[in-house]
Amino acid sequence: MSPRALFSLSALVLIAACEAPDVTENTVAAPEAAPSESAANVKATKFLTANETPPQSAADTKGDGVYRDAEGRPFAYALLGQKLPAFTAPMSDGRTFDSTALNRWTVIDVWGAWCSDCVADGPYVAALERAIAQDPDLDFLSIHVPASAARATPEEMFGKYGSLDAYFASAGYSFPVVIDTDASVRDALQISWTPSYLLVSPDGIVRGFRTDLSVVEDQPVKSFIKDIARVRGEVRDATRRTISAAGVASLDADTAFTVSAVEKAFPDFDVIPIVDPESGASSFEIRPDGSEAARFIVESDWSRGYVAIVSSRSGDVHGPLGEKIGAARFAELPLEKRALCADPLPANGGHEFTCPDPAAPEQFTRVYRLEGGADSADRPNGDALLVELRFAPEVP
Q1: How far apart are CA 311 and CA 306, in angstroms?
Q2: Nearest CA to 141 among 226, 84, 183?
Q3: Nearest C-alpha neighbor of 200 from the set 85, 91, 306
Q4: Rounded distance, CA 37 to CA 60, Å?
Q5: Measured between alpha carbons, how far is residue 228 from residues 221, 340, 374, 386 in Å?
Q6: CA-to-CA distance for 131 and 148, rounded, in angstroms?
Q7: Partner of 41 at 20 to 30 A CA spacing, among 24, 55, 178, 362?
Q8: Cα separation, 3 vs 104, whole angstroms
């Protein structure tokens, strides 16, 4: 069940909640040295993509390693850069939500009707949900949480409203909500303040975090949408330099070997059909917009008519271990992976050898080149340079 089918929203995750004094969270502690701050009280309302050194005015008021501002907002979030924990929970419309269904960029709003800061954020959340609904590649998920497991009775969860329906009737807007009935979702997501907002990428990684929107004076929803767009662009640019399933977007073994299908997998790239004059075999060169140099080569499995192999010899591309074409040496490859390498074969005055990696998510192969004369053909050694990366999407 897709998130859009559930919420008619895009895939960013927002989480909102007031401070819960009796909840201990495992969040990032402050580094030993903190920069000086001119202001006595700096608010923890910044959009974060990585945890930073808290200001000097921050304090670990609960002894749990979470450094907060004077009102209790955290200056860091423990799950930034990590996989979103899996969870299931009931929804306000009677269905059951499963977080493994998230497969787009998603904003998660974690909040509670009992929380005055969340109520203050309500009009901004409604505007945010409407803005996200205009983006077909972005989803919105609302999660209602209690302050803690000890405060999870209906009376405490919904405060003066008495129910979620009554809250929405009072607020003048509504959307489906995941309901955390026992604080298990709150605890799994390590939420120490409501409202909190999370930005999650299609691979399930938490890419961004922030607290209240209502305390930002200048166009908080517009600013947040800009932050989301920036992070999506940065992640897209980074993954497109990786020779892997992530680096070739939606390309897989079910992708037809056609210009339109490959263009869909490589948006914002030029897809150039190439025909070998001798064999007549066709391939596609994938070039960054306006470039004459290929970043990837896409080849077909003619028995099926689908994409079979994606390869690269571009210095802009790196592999799943971070190894970069034209820079990484064979000596840097882990010993267990070196044992899989084939004997070197002559290639234009040097010798090339392949190193398959069945442990990678796809059928992945590294190609190393050993320069030199006949003596270089003995066995691959540490001086060999990484010259090509290939992967073959697994055939279903």
Answers
A1: 15
A2: 84
A3: 85
A4: 17
A5: 11, 42, 55, 35
A6: 31
A7: 24
A8: 8
Q: How many residues does the chain have?
A: 396
Q: Which amino acid is at 195?
A: P
- The confidence score (pLDDT) of residue 57 equals 84
Per-residue pLDDT at 33: 41
Residue 69 token pair: 């501002």
Give the Cα separation of 227 and 2 in Å (integer): 24
pLDDT of residue 356: 87
Q: How many other β-carbons are positioned within 10 Å of the β-carbon of residue 288?
A: 16
Radius of gyration of the CA atoms of the chain, in A: 25
In sequence order, the 6+-apart residues with CB closer than 8 A to the CB of 375 are none
Is the whole-model pTM more than 0.70? no
- Report whether 333 contacts 348 (CB < 8 A): no
What pLDDT sits at residue 35? 43
Do 272 and 285 meet the contact criterion of CB atoms below 8 Å apart? yes
Spell out the alpha helix ranges (H) of the chain: 3-7, 116-132, 154-158, 164-171, 184-188, 220-239, 259-265, 335-338
Angle between helices 220-239 and 116-132 (to 10 degrees): 60
CA triple 24-227-289, angle to 5 deg: 135
Six-digit token string for 173: 């807007």
Ranges of the chain with pLDDT below 50: 1-17, 21-39, 245, 247, 249, 361, 373-378
Backbone angles phi, psi at 108, to 5 degrees: -110, 125
**Residue 107 burial (10 A CB sphere; 0-12, 13-18, 19+):** buried
- Residue whose tokens read 């000086």: 36
Residue 386 CA to residue 171 CA, distance in Å, equals 59
